[in-house]
Every structure is written in C-alpha cells, then in structure tokens.
Amino acid sequence: MWFLKKKNIKELNPSPPSPSQAVAPQKKDALKTSLQQNIQTLKDTLGESSDIIIREIRIGKEGTIKAGIIYTDGLTDTPSLQNFILETLMLDIKGIELQKKTSPEQNLISILKDVALTVGEIKEITNLDVLFTSLLSGDTIILIDGYAQGLIISNKHWVERGVTEPAAQTVVRGPREGFTENLRVNTALIRRKLKDPNLWMESKIIGTRTKTNIAIVYINGIANDKIVKEVRLRLDRINIDGILESGNIEELIQDSPYSPFSTVYNTERPDVVAAALIEGRIAILVDGTPFVLLVPALFVQFFQSAEDYYVRTVIGSLIRLLRFFASGISLLAPALFIAITTFHQSMLPPALIISLAAQREGVPFPAFIEAVIMEVTFEILREAGVRMPRSIGSAMSIVGAFVIGTAAVEAGIISAMMVIVVSITAISSFVSPSYDIAIAVRMLRFAFMALAASFGLFGITVGLIALILHLCSLRSFGVPYMSPIAPFNVSDQKDTFIVLPIWKMFTRPRLINQQNRVRQQDSASAKPAPTKK
Amino acid sequence: MKQCMFGLLILSLFLTGCWDRRELNELAITLAIGIDKVEDEYQVTTQVVVPSEVSMKGSTGSTTVALFTASGETVYEAIRRMTKDSPRKIYPGHLRMLVIGEELAQEGIGKSLELLSRDWELRPDFYVVVAKDIPAKEILNVTTAIESIPANKMFNSLKMSEKAWAGTHSITLHELIADLTSDGKEAVLTGIQLIGNKEIGSSKQNVETISPAARIKYDNLAVFKEDKLVSWLTEKESRGYSDITNSVKTTVTPISCPKEGKATIEVIQSNSDVKGNINNGKPEVDINIKVEGNVGEVECKINLTKLGTIDELEKIYEKEVIEIINETLDTLQKQYKTDIFGFGEAIHRSNPKEWNKMKENWDEEFSNLTVNVKVDMKLHRTGTINNSLLEKIKD
C-alpha cells in the first residue's frame, strides 16, 4: 500500500544545515593532547548541559600537572568519586615526583591506572565517541594535560526500583522476585539461578541516540548456534535512533509483524528465563525494562505458567488443560451463542430454547448486535480499569458491574443469557498466563462473532480452519510456531497439553535445541522410590 | 493491489448478510401439532409456546401456550396459511407430539405424514398419538397441571408411562413410518383421550383447582390396517402386544395366589424373542419370553421363605401371561386379521423365498398361523420383608 512505502524517506531528513553534522567530524576525532582543547570540545558537544560536571584540578608535587575530571551528576556515585578518585589524585600522590618517573613506556596515565587509583573497573581511551557513551552512562572520565588518552572509571550509581514481585505474572507457589529496570541487576538475577560457566552474555548497544544496552543471554552448548547467530544478525540489522523498551526490539526482530500472535515471548520472571535458557532458548535483556524477551517462542509456551512445574504433576496438567479450554471459551463462546441461537435453534434442548426465547422477548437488537454492544462495553471497562488511577478503580467496577449486569437486563435492552455469556468469556480471557495470547484471542473473538452472525456454525468452522492454517504457517526464528503439535513430536508431548513429572522429562524440546538434548542421564535413578536396603 | 482485491473479495462475502438468520423471538416454537380432517380439507392445529409466560419473571398469568388453526388442501398449505393468524412463523424443530384425529385416522394417515417426514426442520423423533372419540384440536386445547405446557405433559406422561406400565406404548414418527411401509407388520398408535368438561379445560381456570375439570389421559392402542384405523385394543391386549414385541421396560402384573387372594409381580426386565419358520410349508412363529422380576405385593397367605413357593409363583405368572398373550393373539388373528406384531417380518427374515409366495395373502395366512408361546419367569427378590404381615393379623 502506498502509505507504507518508504521511497521518500531521505527527503524527510534534509541534510544541510544540521547542527549535529558540524560536530560530527570532530567527534570521530581522537583526543587531543591539550586538556583545554578537549574540555572545549566536550562543552561544545554537550551544549553545557547542567548535569555534566567538569572539574579541573592540579596534581603532582607542585601542582604542575593540569587534569580534568568529568562526570554526569546523578548517574555517578559521588562518595566513591570523592574518596577514591579526588582524594587519591589530590592528596595521596601529592608527594610523589610524577614528572620524573615519566618515561615513554611508563607514562602518567599508566601510573595512575596501575598504581594510584583504588577503583575496580578502569579503562584507557583515546576515542571521543567512546568517551561520550561512557560519560553519559555514568562513568567518570579523567583527562590529563599533555596526553591524548583518558581514563574511564566505572562508578555508576543511580536511584532505581528494587527487586519486587512481578505484577503481570503472579504465582501462588514459586519465587516472588521479578526483573527490574537495570540490566545489570537482571543479569545478576539470572546468574544467581544458573551458576554455569557456559551461561554466556553478549552485549550490544542499540539506538543511535539512546545507546541502550542489550544483552543476548544463552547457554553455550545447549542453545542452537544457528538461532543464536540469527538473533545476532537480526539485532545487528537494527538501525534506529531509540530503543525504550524490549517491545521495540520485539517488533524489530519478530517474524510476522501483522499476525495477532506474538512470536517472541516476554516475561518478568527470572525463573522463567532460567528454565527457558536450560531448554535452549535465548534471552534478550534490554536495559530500562523489566521485560525480558525469549526466542524462539512457541504457541504452547503462552499457555505454560511457571507454576505448572512447581506443583504436583496431576494438578499442573489439569490446570494447563483448563487454560486451553478457557482460551477456547474466550475465543468462541459469544460466536457459538450467536450461531446457535440465530441459525441452529434445533440444536438446543426444548426446555432451553423456551427459556432463552423468554429472555429475548422484547429485546430490540439481533443477537449479534447485542453481543457486540456487550463485548465493546466490557473492553472499554477493562481498558479504563488498566489506565485509571488505582484509587478510583473500585468506583468503576461498581458502575461497570451495575451497568452491564443489572441495569441493561432490567431495562430489557440486553438478554440475561448474553450477560452470562459475555461474563464467562471475559473471565476466561484472564485465565491465560500470558497477556499476549489473551489479547490476540480477544481480538479474534470479534472476527468469529461476525462470521457466526453471517454464516452460523459454518462460518465458525471456516474461521477456525483459517486460524489453524495461519498458526501453522508461523515460524519463530526458524522453529515452527505450532510445534510440537504440528509438526508432531511424541517426546515433546510431555510438556504440551499436560505436564509430566519432572523425573520423566529426560530431553529438551527437540526443535528448539538440537545438540545436548539429554537433561537427566539415568532414568532409573530419576524416579523417586524408597531406597532398597 | 492484489492484497486489496483479496480483502475486498473476502469482505464481499459478508454482503450476503445474515441470510437465513432467525432470532429466537421471531420463532413460534411449536411443541404439538394436531391434524384433523374437516370436510375434505386438513385442519391443522399448532400449540405454540408463549415464552414469556413460561418464565418465572415475565408471567402475566395467562396461558403458556396459544393455539393456531388453519385449513388447507394439503398439510403444508394449512401450516403456511397459519401465518395469517400467527404473528410469527411456525417453527416445528422442537415438535414433541403429533396428535391425529380419529376421523382422519380412519380415512388413512399416510398422506398427512408425508410433509412431516420430508421437511428438514422436523426431527422425526416426536411421538404420534391418535385422539380417541374427539378431534385432535380438542386434545391440544386443554391446560394441564404440573407441566404447564400441555405438549410437554403429553410427552412426559407417555415417556414415563411406557417405562413403568406395559399397557402404554410410545411410537415416534420414524417407527410409525417404518411400520406403515413394511409388508410384514401393521402399525399401532397410542390413543389419547379427553376426560371431563372441555369448555373449562381450555382456560387457565382448569388448573386452578386440585382436580382439574378436564384432563388428557392415554388410552389403549389403536390398530391400523395399512394406514387406516380399524379398532382399539383393550388394556389387556395392549399389555399382550407389549409382551410380544419386546417393548416392556418395567411393569407390574397381578397374579392369583396358589390358594386364594392375589399377589403382584414387579417385572424389572423382559425380553421376547420372535422367531419365524416354515414347517411343512406352513408358517409358524415361536415366541420366547424371558422375564425377570420381584415379588412386589402379597395379599394372601403363602410362605415366601420356602423356595418352592417362589417356584410356584413363577409357574403361575408364566401361565397367566401366556393366557394374556393368547387372548391378544386370538383377537388379532380371528377378529381383525391384522399382523401388528411383525410376524410377517420374522418369517421374511427366516425364509425370504417362502415369504415372497405368501406375502400377497399374508392376512389370511396370519389368521391361521400357529404361534408357540413360551414364557420363562425368574423371581429374584421379595422386598424388605419375608412373609406377609397378613400372616400375623388374626381374623
């Protein structure tokens, strides 16, 4: 379609005169030897932003050497800056004859780095570009007059939210911790669960302006190398100015952007990520959001909750079956109701049809319109409930329940049965543990209602066939979305519709992982049984 | 462009717009149809549910059903003509009862059933009954107690009665059509009667008293020859019919005690096996009935703790049931000469060649048919007491 074409995209970005371009050539340059010049460049580029602190000091015996300390206020740990950097430079090394010791091989920068500064992570730089990225991430920069090098000291520190219980994916039994907005905390949460040297974390910086840190996390030797490569490739392909949430990354790397079904899984739970990594999946962590992406994502994965594996196997299996059933209700209940009451009345038992007909007496709308009114009302209420301040939420639920539940029926606009159907549908849609699948189902429900109203059960059947065809055509990073149902795999049925006991899960999912498939070696010892004497 | 065209094509499907759609409140849900013959025309009566009266909430106190009547040269014409009177189109998908007027039954029911078996909206699993002595319309015009919809009352009565009483027999449309089209079996239908004052019967007033002024009640079986009603059986003959045709579910049978008084046997299972064969060129039928039952009631002085008494009761039961069956056979063989038992079919199954020879003349053959009846009774339990309390009452 014409408005989607990108042929004129270059015209949107007029090249001259651009302020960034004036600075750009300078930026690429290496550091100068003159401190004054370097500081001037910094000031020019940063536009004298108020949060950038440039502190000029003198070090050495007579205070002959000029040095500059540059950091971003609010992102840098000020006590450590004062205790370990300023104190070292200005007091501890005051008596030492710095100038004398300086030889070509052993310059001042190296001495500071190797001997003087009592901090953990420290790096030498010569490039202005790297300097800016580090500075704006919260590192402290030390520049010394007469050297075309600088030092980066990593002492980032800022105020952030602690590790709390995830809001979206709650469990009754299971760990209560959730990811935070800090990438490092998140990698630490995963590392704490998997103390495996093969747990590899590759870093990337994406976004020309946001410079967002991204980590690709996988277990080397378990994750499929081809998929890891593919993830890397897709991430490298991204050329965008800003990444603010993992949702942006998801959109940029997913397989089928227009499908209602998500082919990338997201979670806030470290235990889910750890389990996925052990299965051979790849996690993509994005700085600034607690939502971690998991690929490849399969259809059944959206029905699996972390809790399934923590409770007893029979209960876990039943609950998972219930989830599939509830999603079916959520997708089809209003459509089936419309189809049966307006086309296939003979399918209803006589007592029921009379009862339903009695409820419909005096209802002015056809069943389809009635259902659409109720469903749309419900969607509005749901959306309002999500967006509105918590404090008035209860007021809304009272109004909502009263308006839909009672008043509409009393007024004779809506039949009581329709309220029941819509309520069951609404409740069922909240059963699925993943928000992505719930929202896809909710959207498709309207399509099925339209099909049912036009063609009856025939329409629903055709719609279902189309839906299944679509699902089977999807792929997530090369893995068929519907596996292990289509293509069918017997051994993976252990964790599809039911959950077998953990001592029966010998292998990892087949299509996700193709090397190192065995999880437990000895099947006999795995089965819990009393020890024989 | 291609995508656009495809989208448009898909969307154009919806232009058909809800074709064939009918809302529930556009249907006249018909639970019972009555067909009569009035002056060369069919008079069709439909009993249509008034849904708002059935539900607890919206009821205004008027009757739960409404009757619509129309006449026509054919049944279909009459039903369509009904829309002149009825605000909604007749929807017979949930039909439970078809009542045929006696007059029409005597003239022949075949033609009037054609529509009902052809129309796709109807399920042929509804019961067919014959109104005895009055037009079908009158039967549908009675309010009933307990079941507020009269059609449901008729349906449930017949269903329950058939399960618990061997004298009644339910026949659905497809069974009836099978009987009518078979060479070796004639049809029977249950009769239905109106007892009491039919003027009061049609008003709600009828059910406001403990004992309704008018009530509808099932009667005995009507015998058909081809598709015409010939006669009515007595209750005993109806019972015999059920025994022979293996349609007894449970029932009770009073028998005489060895000396004096009566006892009642509760039949809990009854299986009859009809076998036809040709013996010396003559057709013969063996009926083998296996019955299981309990002693239900003892109104005489017998010692039930003795095994011999039970054997004795079994013998008496066998003898008395054979009598009932023979009486039934006698009436139908000698009086009506109508094979309602399907003996012809039994012979057809065992010897098709001979059957083809005697098929044309079956009524005559039937009346001279030798039927050997064998009943085998097994009594199991005697209830919660052993000997009757009568033993202890001193007279």
Largest interface: A-B, 25 and 31 residues
The succession of helices and strands of chain A, N to C, reads: HHEEHHHEHEEHEEHHEHEEHHHHHHHEEH
Query: Approximately how much beta-strand content do the residues of chain A carry?
Result: 5-15%
Task: Give the total of beta strands of chain B.
Answer: 13
Instruction: Label the structural class of chain A.
Output: alpha+beta
Q: What share of residues of chain B is helical?
A: 25-40%
Write down the domain tally of chain B: 2
Question: Cα-atom Rg of chain B, whole angstroms?
Answer: 26 Å
Strands, helices and their partners?
The complex is a heterodimer of chains A (533) and B (395).
Chain A: H1 19-28, H2 35-46, E1 52-59, E2 65-72, H3 78-92, H4 98-101, H5 108-116, E3 122-125, H6 128-137, E4 140-144, E5 150-153, H7 183-193, E6 199-206, E7 212-219, H8 225-237, H9 246-253, E8 265-267, H10 270-279, E9 282-286, E10 292-295, H11 313-342, H12 350-360, H13 367-387, H14 393-410, H15 416-429, H16 435-455, H17 457-473, E11 475-476, E12 479-480, H18 523-526
Antiparallel strand pairs in A: 1-2, 2-4, 3-5, 4-5, 6-7, 7-9, 8-10, 9-10, 11-12
Helix pairs in contact in A: 7-10, 11-15, 11-16, 13-14, 13-15, 13-16, 16-17
Chain B: H1 2-13, E1 27-38, E2 41-49, H2 51-54, E3 65-72, H3 75-81, E4 89-91, E5 97-100, H4 102-107, H5 110-118, E6 127-131, H6 136-139, H7 150-164, H8 173-181, E7 188-196, H9 198-201, E8 214-225, E9 228-232, H10 235-244, E10 251-256, E11 262-279, E12 282-298, H11 307-336, H12 343-350, H13 352-358, H14 362-367, E13 370-379
Parallel strand pairs in B: 1-4, 1-5, 5-6, 6-7, 12-13
Antiparallel strand pairs in B: 1-2, 2-3, 7-8, 8-9, 10-11, 11-12
Helix pairs in contact in B: 5-8, 10-11, 12-13
